[in-house]
Write a structure and sequence with these properties.
Helix 4 (134-143) crosses helix 12 (330-351) and helix 10 packs across helix 11 (306-317). Strands 3-2-1-4-5 form a five-stranded mixed sheet. By secondary structure, the protein is of the alpha/beta class. It has helices at residues 66-69, 71-89, 109-122, 134-143, 185-201, 208-217, 223-231, 235-239, 242-250, 254-278, 306-317, 330-351, and strands at residues 24-30, 35-41, 57-61, 96-103, 128-133, 149-154, 158-163, 169-173, 289-294, 321-324.
């Protein structure tokens, strides 16, 4: 176990009394906007999990998507948030038994292996380490740690991810804004900004989005919007304009309504693609399967409920889809995944 490049992050381990007899697990949900780490105690194995789940500590940090902020900054964020959670819980790395790190930007086995190698330098050799895409933790947050069904995330970015009970998996979207995460917060806001520029040029219809976005940003003309956009084109900064688009749509603006309707279609297509790849719906298309829905874009507004509209689209082809709005956050889902995998390995070793 090394201290990595941020040795001072772990200085608290030498300065505090630690409950050494308490074993813990860490679950991390790392997205484009924020990163959350949950520290939970190891629970005894039983059919029923306690309600509410015991959470010893929760820590929050910034973006940990290496495609967005770079690998060095992403690692520093992840290490800091884990240290913060352990410090708040009165634990240290020696008390950790399993870690599930679920982050956006993990799209290939090489991504997983690179992060696993880095994690192994941080934690003692006995710690079980699991690295997954953040969509997997979001699914687990709705299925209480069971990997079966489909999850749709629509926040700053978007992805649909699914698992069958025999372990097959598939995904759709989640390729980032350049490759078309349409339906995401970034995608919706980017189309709104484009609509403002088109209207200003005379290439598109006039829209309420112009005055509302300019007022929100404190700008006096659409010309200034170009400088604002490229001064800091970070995904989360652009996506923060989604509530403006929704408010304009609810006020009857045709351009804003068209943007949201297209977003609904794109999100539904992502879900359908995963369901088709995995056959989650059965041969007749009517088998039930959980559809976990996570992210700010899918939350209900006064009149526009993007999540409900997506479900309506999906249900037309797959009436067995069962919508689930998780009662716990994805970081808790990651912790449950770590707990499930740890207990599975423990039981297998015990049987030997």
């Amino acid at each position: 176990m090394k201290r990595y490049r941020n040795g001072e992050i772990w200085d608290f381990e030498h300065e505090m009394a630690v409950a050494t007899n308490r074993q813990v697990i860490l679950g991390l949900d790392g997205g484009t906007t924020s990163t959350v780490c949950i520290c939970m105690p190891i629970m005894s194995f039983s059919d029923a999990l306690p309600d509410p789940l015991p959470v010893l500590a929760r820590a929050v940090a910034g973006c940990s998507n290496h495609n967005s902020v770079g690998e060095t900054a992403a690692r520093e964020t992840l290490e800091q948030v884990m240290a913060d959670a352990l410090s708040k819980s009165g634990s240290n790395r020696s008390a950790v038994r399993a870690v599930c790190l679920a982050v956006s930007g993990v799209n290939h086995p090489t991504d997983q292996q690179r992060i696993l190698t880095w994690l192994r330098d941080i934690f003692p050799s006995h710690v079980k380490l699991y690295v997954r895409n953040d969509a997997v933790a979001a699914l687990a947050s709705g299925t209480i740690g069971k990997l079966h069904g489909c999850v749709l995330i629509a926040g700053t970015g978007t992805i649909a991810y699914g698992f069958t009970e025999d372990g097959r998996e598939a995904r759709a979207a989640g390729a980032g804004p350049v490759l078309g995460d349409w339906g995401s917060g970034y995608g919706i806001a980017a189309l709104a900004l484009t609509a403002v520029i088109r209207a200003h040029d005379g290439r598109g219809p006039q829209t309420m989005l112009t005055s509302t976005i300019l007022q929100t940003l404190g700008l006096s003309s659409a010309d200034e919007l170009i400088g604002w956009t490229y001064a800091d084109p970070s995904w989360a900064r652009i996506a923060a304009l989604v509530p403006v688009v929704v408010s304009c749509a609810e006020a009857g603006d045709e351009v804003a309504n068209k943007i949201l309707k297209e977003a609904v279609e794109e999100l539904a297509l992502s879900v359908k693609a995963v369901v088709q790849k995995l056959g989650l719906c059965g041969e007749d298309g009517k088998n039930p399967f959980p559809l976990v829905m996570v992210g700010g874009v899918l939350e209900a507004n006064q009149r526009w409920d993007i999540g409900r509209e997506v479900m309506d689209f999906v249900s037309r082809d797959y009436p067995g889809a069962v919508p689930i709005r998780p009662k716990v956050e994805p970081a808790v889902g990651a912790a449950l995944l770590a707990w499930n995998e740890f207990m599975k390995e423990f039981q297998e070793a015990y049987r030997r």
